[in-house]
Amino acid sequence: MNHNRIADNQFVQVTPFKTRRIVHTDKLMMAVWDFSDGPWSTPEPYHSHPHDQVVYLSEGGVDFFIEDESFRLGPGDMIAVPGNRPHTIRLLTPTVRLIDTWTPLREEFL
Amino acid sequence: MNHNRIADNQFVQVTPFKTRRIVHTDKLMMAVWDFSDGPWSTPEPYHSHPHDQVVYLSEGGVDFFIEDESFRLGPGDMIAVPGNRPHTIRLLTPTVRLIDTWTPLREEFL
C-alpha cells in the first residue's frame, strides 16, 4: 500500500473560510475547494482564463454564472466552462465543496 | 435561469449496477460513475489509455491500482493517473461514486 499520490495533495488555506487541495498530471489539474462562509448575498467578481474548466458540485448549493447566464447547482451537478468565458459563483448554503478541473494546468496554483 | 449545460449531461446506464453521466468542453471531459454492486472480491481487469486522468472519490471506498501500486481511497480523496499507465479499481463498499476527468476527450464515451 502506497499513499504517495494521495499525499501529493497540495493543501492551501486560501482564506480563513476557503481551502484548496490540488492534484495534477502534466496536462490535467483538479482542485477540491471547501468554503465555509456561505451563503453569500452577492457573487464573487467574475474571472476568466484561457483554460477549459469542468466543475462538479459535491456538497451544498451555488448559483454558477457564465457571462449573462446563471445555473443553480446542487450536489451531483456538473457544469462546463470553455476557455476565456467570464464566470463566477454565489454560495447558497453555509458550506460548499466544489471540484474544479482544468486543462492545461493553472500554473498559478502550483 | 437556464439549465442547458446541466441538462447536457449525457446519462448512460452502462450495466444494471453502473451508470455514467458526462459533461465536457472541447478538451476536457468529466464523468460521474455510480456503482451499486460492491463490494467486489477482485478488481476489474486493468485498462490503459493515452489520456491523462484525475479521479475524485465522492462516496464510498475503493482500492485504486496503478500498475503494481495500490491506493486505498475514501470520500474526498483524489488520485492522478498519467496517460498510458494501466490502472483499475476494486469497490470496498456497496455503493461508490467516482468522478473521473480526462484530457483529451474519451471519444468512445460520446
Number of helical stretches of at least 4 residues of chain A: 1
Order of strands across the biggest sheet of chain A? 1-2-3-9-4-7
pLDDT below 50 for ≥5 consecutive residues: which ranges of chain A?
A: none
Mean model confidence by pLDDT of chain A: 92
Shape of chain A: globular
Examine the coordinates and then state which fold CATH places here, giving the name of the CATH topology of chain A. Answer: Jelly Rolls
What would CATH call the homologous superfamily of chain A? Jelly Rolls
| Helical fraction of chain A | under 10%
Query: How far is it from the N-terminal to the C-terminal residue of chain A, by CA?
Result: 27 Å
Structural class of chain A: mainly beta
From the 3D coordinates, which CATH architecture of chain A would you assign? Sandwich
Radius of gyration of chain A: 14 Å
| Pair of chains with the largest interface and how many residues each contributes | A-B, 40 and 40 residues
Description:
2 copies of one chain form a homodimer. The first copy, chain A, has a single domain, classed as Sandwich (Jelly Rolls). The longest helix of chain A is centred in the N-terminal third of the chain and has 4 residues, at 4-7. The first copy, chain A, is globular. Chain A is mainly beta and 110 residues long. A 6-stranded antiparallel β-sheet of chain A has the order 1-2-3-9-4-7. Chain A has a 3-stranded antiparallel β-sheet with strand order 6-5-8, with no helix packed on it. Chain A has one helix spanning 4-7, and strands at 10-15, 18-24, 29-35, 52-59, 62-66, 69-73, 78-81, 87-91, 96-103. The A-B interface holds A 1-3, 5-6, 8-9, 21, 23-30, 32, 52-54, 56, 58, 66, 69-73, 76-83, 99, 101-103 and B 1-3, 5-6, 8-9, 21, 23-30, 32, 52-54, 56, 58, 66, 69-73, 76-83, 99, 101-103.
